[in-house]
Design a protein that fits this description.
By secondary structure, this protein is mainly α. It has one helix and no strands. The protein has one helix at about 1-79. The longest helix has about 80 residues, at about 1-79.
């Protein structure tokens, strides 16, 4: 009889351990999901910033070419 009680107590302890681990797994899965969402948001922001950077470089290139052409024309007019 004592052994049955001891085994039942041990089984209850194992059940509590299992429930605790299930709760930890649920918490970790939630944290992972939130982390993935934040990562996706950062990727969208990064892509947007890269597009803006490309646009700025394009504008800079066009302006530089225009300024260069103006300087060349001024020099040619001086000659």
């Amino acid at each position: 009889m004592e052994e049955i009680q001891r085994l039942n107590d041990e089984m209850c302890g194992c059940d509590e351990n299992i429930q605790s681990r299930i709760a930890n797994i649920t918490t970790l899965e939630s944290l992972i999901a939130k982390s993935r969402e934040r990562f996706s948001d950062y990727k969208v922001e990064r892509d947007s910033l890269q597009d803006k950077k490309k646009f700025v470089y394009l504008v800079f290139s066009v302006m530089r070419t225009h300024v260069f052409d103006l300087i060349v024309n001024e020099i040619l007019l001086m000659v």
